[in-house]
Amino acid sequence: MPREAEPSLNEKQFVLQALKEDVRLDGRDLDQYRPLELTFGDQHGVAEVTLGKTKVLVKTSAEVTVPYPDRPLDGIFTIATELSPMTAPSFEVNRPTETEVLLARLLEKTVRRSGALDTESLCLVAGQKVWSVRVDVHVLSHDGNLTDAACFAVVASLRHFRKPDTSMEGGVLTVYTPAEREPVPLSWLHSPFCISWSFYGDMGEIAVLDATWVEEQVRVGSCTISLNRHGEICQIAKLGGTPVEAVALLQCTSVALAKAKELSGLLDTKLAEDAKRRDKGGLLAELSAENDR
Amino acid sequence: MASTQHVLLSPAELAYIHASLSLSPPIRPDGRTPTQFRPLVAETDILPGTNGSARICFADGTEAIVGVKAEVERTPGADAVYDPDHAYDTNAGETALEAGQSDWVELSVEIPGVRDDDSGVAFLSAVLSEALLADGAFSARLRINRRFHWKLYLDILLISPPLSYPLPLLSLTTHLALLSTRLPRLKSEGDEDPFFDDDWAAAPHLFPRHDTTTTSRPPITLLVMAAGRNIVFDPSREELAVADVALAVSVVATTAGTGKKGGGRSLRLLSVRTIDPPSRLTPPGVANEANSAYGAKAAGLVAGQGQRQPEARAAEAERVEGVWRAPRGGSKAGVLAALVGKVLEEGGVVDEVLEALEGVDLG
Amino acid sequence: MPLDTSAYSLALLRVDGRRWNELRRVHAQIRTQAAADGSSYLEMGHTKVMCVVTGPSEPGARRGGTTGGAGGGGNNAAEVSVTVVVAGFSSVDRKRRGRGDKRNLELQSTISNALAASLHTHLYPHSTISISLHVLSQDGSLLAALINAATLACVDAGIPMTDYVVACTAGSTSTYAANDEDADPLLDLNHQEEQELPSLTVATLGATDRVAVLVCESRVQASRLEGMLAVGVDGCKQVREILDRVVRDKGRKMVSEGTVERGIGLESMDLD
């Protein structure tokens, strides 16, 4: 099993000492994110997020299937994460590492369990036909803080996604192609965002946002908080590590809330921009009888 | 986790244990008689959330817990037989459905730190379920009516690290758990949808305790081994390490007549499996004559090595007193027969064990 | 089955008759098994878990199903590997969870990381402390019970640690939808409450306010976190008292039975 290369002792010491003096290697403040970029693909539901050197590509797709027998009224919603050897040599195909399992669980808890997507709206015919929405997360490059980038990309992709319109008439289900009817967005309830803190120092007294890969390797603990802009916590995960003062955690939560609102605003603008870009020609252009000749 | 776990014994120690086990009467490392079991602590009904449960601790610290859970399940294909108008016309297809099916019992073995698809675990659960399902009498008890049956889930957990081969422990614990298993009392009649008495105190045991007619008990699987001419029951890990042959023998006891203890009990053999004893993988010892560090022969060996080699090989095959040789090849049919015969002996070990377990049950 | 929370506001009693800040009955035993280096049995209400610790020992071949790797700098510290086995019969409906179950893996890695930070793993380089946990019955607060049991077993195994890692759950009486301000925090939730109410699991280092594990899996107003966390941390202190008593009682019993000799350290130590 290949192992990740660990930073050398000198490098560790250097990073830690710098953090103790409130200095980060890339000159950011302790609670500052790296520049976050979001681009949408030509297709609906494709989102690529770049956070510093971390790059995540997410694609959402939907198909009609049979629901699970124990939940006949709910659509199926799955998030699949894959960390391929392309990301880092320590990841293997078909052999989920701890990082991958924890990332999958975090996304699952943040997006799925918090009820961000209304799965009941995915039901077409009770017990027989439902939409199955599948989100594929591909990590293209890993330079720390995968969770935040992946979560942002998943939410962006799902909100950008359009599923084919359907209608029920006399027990006959019709699924329209994009040419017949404009595809419709998913029934989206709220947008949660992951904010990850890393802790340093003997007592975990130094809290840092958006850690890079090197910073992640020398941290003594981490805490990922998922919030939406309404101030609701969807999930908190501080899975072990050096104990941190409870008060400090509360402080982290309130900073995280502000960050989540920022991210929410950013996503809204990006979505609006994209919608405008797509609408330029839009339906009107297609319907015009004029030819280009 | 196969029976072939690491045994940290030197060839000399192995030879010593084997020699003392081959004496007549054998001397066991822990001073037991050949038929004596290790002392154990047992309790039943430890988990109120299950239909039946038991826990057994051996004196060496190995511990197992078994929980039994039952669910009502529709018997596939039986609805065709059922016709509401002739619900009590019990002739058609009755005999075919009287017996149980083996998929009515699901058995899983969990051993900490071992994957559940490990071959050793698969073997253990195969031996245990084989004993349960061998004669079909057990699954027949799970029949409710022609359309429904109980599905029994047996979860067998080994709590401690596997110090000795856990098969006897798991089997005894399973036996106890099944003895303590109770299923809700059926209130419906015939082939209608079953409904049950919700008074748990009225629930009958799966294996009725004080029955005036024939009583049978769940099967037990015992580990027996042969060393030299002796047959030893319940071998410890060290003893298993020098076994010539080890067998897992499953038996079921049926008591005919009124509760006369031991007297009317007849034993039936359900299955026999050979256990690959770890002794085959132990390193052989080197006799002093062949050891260059000791004898005068060493010099001669070096001198004429080429010519002497075949001779040395012949010496290797020969048994030297006090030098450990791992057993090679198969074992004689007579030995196997003796092992099985010893288990099935009337008033023998099985009777003792069953009586002891019944004692737990009543206590 | 929806939980009837209407009764709570009238009598301020929960479904099982507890008040808001009451723990369920905690019953614990240590040294339950002779073969292991350390072992424990813990009940929190109807949640029952057993723990067996082996080690610190030479690392064997990497065994399947365990999650480990915690313990800091490579080979300079002991690796804490944890296996959680959820028995098929532990819940009301039999549900089999495989070893590869992500929830299970998350539990394992959480326990491993939480203990690795408190155990003095640097004293045992190149070795493994393997903790195997068995869930016999579950009725809420599973992670908390597992952490408590693992801590007790590590104490029994005699592995030096900074302090107990103790855990309990806390919840809030109203769901995320209702934005009422008079929602009460609750301590130590059972399965029914866990299904209906927002809850979190807190583990602290001994009786301090330092939080080792904080896991919240339900939607809750951020403003409610403070109250829940405070109640949880307070609950952890109560749990620590109970666990400490268990350890001391066992120690005193072993001294009086002559199983262990009364050491020099014990003279000065307050055994009462």
From TrEMBL, chain A:
InterPro entries: ExoRNase_PH_dom1, ExoRNase_PH_dom2, ExoRNase_PH_dom2_sf, Exosome_comp_Rrp42_subfam, PNPase/RNase_PH_dom_sf, Ribosomal_Su5_D2-typ_SF, Rrp45. It is found in: Cytoplasm; Nucleus, Nucleolus. Keywords: Cytoplasm, Exosome, Nucleus, Ribonucleoprotein, Ribosomal protein, RNA-binding, rRNA processing. Residues 32-164, 191-257 form the Exoribonuclease phosphorolytic domain. GO terms for cellular component: cytoplasmic exosome (RNase complex); nuclear exosome (RNase complex); nucleolus; ribosome. Signal peptide: none annotated. The keyword Ribonucleoprotein applies. Its main location: cytoplasm. Coiled coil: none annotated. GO terms for molecular function: mRNA 3'-UTR AU-rich region binding. Transmembrane segments: none annotated. GO terms for biological process: exonucleolytic trimming to generate mature 3'-end of 5.8S rRNA from tricistronic rRNA transcript (SSU-rRNA, 5.8S rRNA, LSU-rRNA); nuclear mRNA surveillance; nuclear polyadenylation-dependent rRNA catabolic process; rRNA catabolic process; TRAMP-dependent tRNA surveillance pathway; U1 snRNA 3'-end processing; U4 snRNA 3'-end processing; U5 snRNA 3'-end processing. SUPFAM superfamilies: Ribonuclease PH domain 2-like, Ribosomal protein S5 domain 2-like. It holds the Pfam family RNase_PH_C. PANTHER family: EXOSOME COMPLEX COMPONENT RRP45 (PTHR11097:SF14), EXOSOME COMPLEX EXONUCLEASE RIBOSOMAL RNA PROCESSING PROTEIN (PTHR11097). Belongs to the RNase PH family. This is Exosome complex component RRP45. It comes from Schizothecium vesticola.
UniProtKB/TrEMBL annotation, chain B:
GO terms for biological process: exonucleolytic trimming to generate mature 3'-end of 5.8S rRNA from tricistronic rRNA transcript (SSU-rRNA, 5.8S rRNA, LSU-rRNA); nuclear mRNA surveillance; nuclear polyadenylation-dependent rRNA catabolic process; rRNA catabolic process; TRAMP-dependent tRNA surveillance pathway; U1 snRNA 3'-end processing; U4 snRNA 3'-end processing; U5 snRNA 3'-end processing. It is found in: Cytoplasm; Nucleus, Nucleolus. Keywords: Cytoplasm, Exosome, Ribonucleoprotein, Ribosomal protein. The keyword Ribonucleoprotein applies. One of its GO terms (molecular function) is mRNA 3'-UTR AU-rich region binding. GO terms for cellular component: cytoplasmic exosome (RNase complex); nuclear exosome (RNase complex); nucleolus; ribosome. Belongs to the RNase PH family. This is Ribosomal RNA-processing protein 42.
From TrEMBL, chain C:
Residues 22-160, 163-234 form the Exoribonuclease phosphorolytic domain. Gene3D superfamilies: GHMP Kinase, N-terminal domain. One of its GO terms (cellular component) is nuclear exosome (RNase complex). InterPro entries: ExoRNase_PH_dom1 (IPR001247), ExoRNase_PH_dom2 (IPR015847), ExoRNase_PH_dom2_sf (IPR036345), PNPase/RNase_PH_dom_sf (IPR027408), Ribosomal_Su5_D2-typ_SF (IPR020568), RNase_PH (IPR050080). Residues 62-75 have a biased composition (Gly residues). GO terms for biological process: nuclear mRNA surveillance; poly(A)-dependent snoRNA 3'-end processing; rRNA catabolic process; U4 snRNA 3'-end processing. One of its GO terms (molecular function) is RNA binding. Residues 56-75 are annotated as: Disordered. PANTHER family: EXOSOME COMPLEX COMPONENT, EXOSOME COMPLEX COMPONENT RRP41. Belongs to the RNase PH family. This is 3' exoribonuclease family, domain 1-domain-containing protein. It comes from Schizothecium vesticola.
